[in-house]
Amino acid sequence: MRFSPTPRGARLARRLVADRLDAWGHPHTSTVNETLTLITAELAANAVRHGHVPGRDFEVRLIATGETLRVEVSDTRTERVPLLSLQEAPGEAESGRGLLLVAALADRWGVVPRVTGPGKTVWAETGCPLTGRSPALGMPR
Questions:
Q1: Of 14, 55, 118, 130, which residue is the least packed, with the fewest Cβ within 10 Å?
Q2: pLDDT of residue 117
């Protein structure tokens, strides 16, 4: 789904992921839902703050494959790619810790060129227990 590159867009992206995970059988209060929602919040905030190109939205994809959940956040900014070797932000800095959080919470994460146009996709994966629901339809298997 596409979102406006604003704080409201980032908030809506986070809510969409939380609601979709709930529909897939991972309740809002579950560890899986809370973890992936927090990762989405950080990646969407970065897309708004660092990946914003005027007039261009950012995209969020949530993918369930087997026992893995993957969130992808794509923006159209090509020259600002996050570094995979992260350093902690200076002591009193108000920002710079989001990707440290993503790295700590995700089983794997990375950055790839955006497939559908200019820009990049930042992705994160986490393992999850099967819920007995079909991710495609939110229906019991």
A1: 55
A2: 81
